[in-house]
Amino acid sequence: MGTRRLLPWTLVLRRLRDRRKISIFTFRNSTNDMRSSPHFRRCLRLIGLWFLAGFAVACSKDSSPTPNRNRMNDTQEFITSMKIVDPHSFARPYEALATHLDLDITVDFANKRISGRASYDVRKEEGATQIIFDTRGINILGVTTPGDSTSEDSLLFLMGDADPVLGQALSVQLTPEIERIHIDFSTRPGAAALQWLDPVQTAGKQHPFLFTQSQAILARTWLPCQDGPGMRFTYNATVRVPKDLLALMSASNPTEINAEGIYKFEMNQPIPAYLMALSVGDLRFKAIGPRTGVYAEPSVLDKGVYEFADMEKMLVAAEELYGPYSWERYDVIVLPPSFPFGGMENPRLTFATPTILAGDRSLTSLIAHELAHSWSGNLVTNATWNDFWLNEGFTVYFERRIMEKLYGESYVRMLSLLGYQDLQATLSEIGPSADDTKLKLNLKGRDPDDGMTDVAYEKGNFLLANIEKTVGRERFDAFLKQYFSTYAFGTMTTESFVDYVDQELVKGDEELRARLNLQGWVYAPGLPADFVPPESDRFSRVDAQRTAWEGGTAAAELSGTAEWTTHEWLHFIRKLPREMSAPQMADLDAAFGFTQSGNSEIQAAWFEHVIRNGYSSGYAALESFLLRVGRRKFLKPLYSALAETPAGKERGLAIYQKARPNYHSVSVGTIDEILNLKMSN
Ligand code: BES
Ligand code: ZN
């Protein structure tokens, strides 16, 4: 941990290009078509590596003045100044980087095991003697390198000390001629990224199911890899699964189950390990538009197709905003309800919870969000998890721009105000001046998951909204479009982003710099003093009705509620008094049917009141919700509310005992903590 390292060289080169220090990029800029070819990208990478290697040699050997001396020093200093620390990876990409993965694995449901071979192409600096991978709880069976045409030579490898969060470094000894290595491995049943579902946990109840969740640092629990967001690789995969199941990855995907149970995948754009993803189950596909479609279990498929009908329009809207989509297709897989997140932006194939299938398309901002990550996150990636807001804050901002294009301003004002409420709740939970309320985080020595709060999402979004307001939408849109194309397939640090704003927008205008207040937004806790919270007329009308109800008007007599959408209902429920009487709860439930709502967001928000007010008519539905749904965002507030009283905690523990085996490790970790359990998986 804590090794200092250079930024991946791709970014080094981009930064050099930006400062017009090297000319190969003039050539690159003028070859738009070639630029997108993977081959060309590989060549570029090679040129880059040689450039850097040559450069290091030039600088170390010669101290006598040369005509280029100043430029050299400047450049060297520039490279050195960009040393960054990824506190969550053992890898040393500046010594040896795995640039391409060929994965060949078998998925064994009976033994809950993935086993096979990860072959990596290695690019190394001259003199590098090892390449380091991240692993956590996987068996490394052997490491070899291709020998002559038929043989393989074993390579020495070493496993480092085990850290409970980071796992173990796997160091493989290299010799100058080694360019490719094979790692034979198998996972263990408790692999944290993997959730192996029994047939009863699926919609169809007939077949088992497997999905991965690699973000933030769980890829290393199912695959030896250089597991930091600043290291990218392309991949091909062959995946063997039981014959009646379909395998899908964050790559080019099949649309039908085949007789052999062998599936091949290609991801030709370089991605970081946290975007490695696999899902296996009884899955079917239906197209939505030419580039978009849905995968789901057969009984869920049509619901998904209905719900996500606007996906193609979202894709078009996103491209209109910030430039071409780089990943060819955009599909969504609807997973079983134990998926611990709402969505995960695995490239080409977003993983989504079925809890957004509300039947009325009201929760699809989540799809806009995951789609937006195709730019913010997947294309321009946070350099380390300390820069997480660059992924999520940008994505929330972008998500809302897509939603605004499709559904208008008043809709998005509701989303923003709900987001602001989430942020307020988080700020009061962790303390308004806590370090974790800064956008730039310091997660060294901690599980990165700990810092992944609404601060990154909502404060990050409001920072960008503030720039937009200050410089004007037109200018900001042009800026963002250029940002995504300049840094495509690269990484970004918070500091580089601030520099980039300075260079492209501030341009020495001190008054503008002061109004943007980036230093305050990024490095100070909480929200800046002059922050103006979002407003929504629609929510103001909801507030008026709630006030009337609190004043004694019966729920059924409230006006305008027939026109309310999910978001108005959410606002209404959130703002209800913390303490309500049994008749009051019953009045609301009888009029609006919250307990039995088919909308998971409404149910989850309502259940908090059910718990706090001991509304026993809601208990059965609460329990079945907690048994069925594994989405952490819902579980966390509900178990926390249960844990507020001794009796509640007892009920919570009783439910959790039954529910825990159905949850993914990500949710288990959080709920164990809430209920003060120290259990192992
Ligand atoms: N990338 C995140 C999910 C994530 C974050 C996984 C950190 C692991 C670590 C994803 O894009 C996301 O933000 N999902 C949200 C939904 C979104 C609409 C705010 C979620 O799952 O709730
Ligand atoms: Zn996100």
Question: What key phrases describe this protein's structure?
Answer:
alpha+beta; 681 residues; binds ligand BES; 7-stranded mixed beta sheet; 21 strands; binds zinc ion; 5-stranded mixed beta sheet
Structural class: alpha+beta
Helix content: 40-55%
Total beta strands: 21
Total DSSP helices: 23
Side-by-side strand order of the widest sheet: 5-4-8-2-1-11-13
- The share of residues in extended strands comes to 15-25%
Which small molecules are bound?
ligand BES, zinc ion
- Average of the residue pLDDT scores: 90
Name the shape in a single word.
globular
Question: What is the CA–CA distance across the termini?
Answer: 25 Å
Radius of gyration: 26 Å
Biggest β-sheet: count, sense, barrel?
Answer: 7 strands, mixed
Oligomer: single chain
- Low-pLDDT runs of 5+ residues are 1-82
Helices and strands in order, then pairings?
Layout: H1 9-18, H2 24-29, H3 32-35, H4 38-61, H5 69-81, E1 96-108, E2 113-124, E3 130-135, E4 138-146, E5 152-154, E6 157-159, E7 168-173, E8 180-187, E9 194-197, E10 209-212, E11 232-240, E12 246-249, E13 262-272, E14 278-281, E15 284-287, E16 292-296, H6 298-307, H7 311-322, E17 330-334, E18 343-344, E19 349-352, H8 365-372, E20 380-382, H9 388-407, H10 409-430, H11 454-471, H12 473-486, E21 490-492, H13 494-506, H14 510-516, H15 518-523, H16 537-550, H17 566-574, H18 582-592, H19 600-612, H20 619-628, H21 632-642, H22 646-659, H23 665-674
Parallel strand pairs: 1-11, 16-17, 17-19, 20-21
Antiparallel strand pairs: 1-2, 2-8, 3-7, 4-5, 4-8, 6-7, 9-10, 10-14, 11-13, 12-14, 15-16, 18-19
Helix pairs in contact: 7-8, 7-9, 8-9, 9-10, 9-11, 10-11, 11-12, 16-17, 17-19, 19-21, 20-22, 21-23
